[in-house]
């Protein structure tokens, strides 16, 4: 305990008008947080002030980061400001490290009022990279719109913030650190906790660890290759997959969290996890996986580099949940997917006779469904899958689901996926990302495209591309009415649905760092015939993409010759 009480200081500041949180909190170039006066402090004060004063006094919050550059500096400020704003206890990961799923897990376990996660997900790190601040609420999930709106409103009128500038903590020392503050009756407590332990204990209660261990160590040992991409997941992969489940230590690569992720973009995709893709092509490994910086997104590869599309991944999981003790015990309540995600999951829901919910993009929309007992499994096409065990997408949990399925079915990744297609059909799917587009050009392109598809004549239109003819059945700007509380989310993406169940989706992404807009185009085509399920995705979807480029005029409107990334 400190001998002299630490003073609480009120600092005058001026508001910023650009601190509206996006789909995953506030993301900006790191230089914005470093160079703009009080930019970090203003936003943290806005987050803390969004919590009702009565709830805030003496409450517990969780703090973690993906280890990216500027995280330690930001954690020190968060601790100093949390103390000054009446928070009673902070639970922080060792060395500031906590995966996003672990934060959600801990919030729920200790019944914290919420948590602050420092991450920009799969965006680059380092001084020239991106930085983000995400606030999760008491259910462990991302802030709903009511909370993010409140944070933004506070940020626009903020005139001062409270801080204890003399308060210092040691992130490397596990255990409790107590501090006496001026004019506070109770000491302020910081607990530095093992980053992995609580999360690992949760997983032990979900999976049959013996079955997975048998797969990874038995006579027909499955060799795996896991790439943590120098993000937060290194300690989790080593402790859980290697130490606990018996995978050889050399199964895990890039497991040291680095502030710049080793100069690479921590994005678990074919484009950015190319070294994993190359190592899988040799055929030595039966399963490959990569994780993003904060551990909520993942990619699955089979032997010889067989790529599992994220939309297929959640569908295959859904069809095989009986392999997992947790779901055998809890039963299946329903499935949910974001609107752009392929309809492969819908077909599983229909086959299993459970409800299917189609939500806007953003994990926060799944929270109400899970909290009300409507949803057991949910997923997004952006490499995220999760269940009601927490309120976040969960990369390592997803890999353990795949290992459980492989152990139960005694099949490889490719065989499992192709069996699934043979049974329920294949949804060919791809996404084109146009990143860093001029925001005005993006806005006007989307506005004009909505006008085109909203015209009554459009719904009777036919598009001929080569020998393919696509008849428009429905076109709209997606709107979601939450079945739990009736709240309405409008303008969630432009949809064109064709009579053969093919779809085109156009969306402006809400997860950027402020450096231009990102336009996403999604194309999907359903194939029931097993003889036609092994074609190249781009060949199948080429005609649909041609229609998308023509009606949006995206290349002319943005000055681009093609997408930045194709997934």
UniProtKB/TrEMBL annotation:
Location of the Alpha-D-phosphohexomutase alpha/beta/alpha domain: 19-160, 199-304, 333-423
Protein's cellular compartments: Cytoplasm
Pfam families registered for this protein in UniProt: PGM1_C_vert_fung (PF24947), PGM_PMM_I (PF02878), PGM_PMM_II (PF02879), PGM_PMM_III (PF02880)
Assigned GO CC terms: adherens junction; cell-substrate junction; cytosol; sarcolemma
Database matches in CDD domains: PGM1
GO biological process: one example: striated muscle tissue development
A single MF term (Gene Ontology): phosphoglucomutase activity
SUPFAM superfamilies according to UniProt: Phosphoglucomutase, C-terminal domain (SSF55957), Phosphoglucomutase, first 3 domains (SSF53738)
InterPro entries: A-D-PHexomutase_a/b/a-I (IPR005844), A-D-PHexomutase_a/b/a-I/II/III (IPR016055), A-D-PHexomutase_a/b/a-II (IPR005845), A-D-PHexomutase_a/b/a-III (IPR005846), A-D-PHexomutase_C_sf (IPR036900), Alpha-D-phosphohexomutase_SF (IPR005841), PGM (IPR045244)
Similarity section: Belongs to the phosphohexose mutase family.
Descriptive protein name: Phosphoglucomutase
Organism: Megalops atlanticus
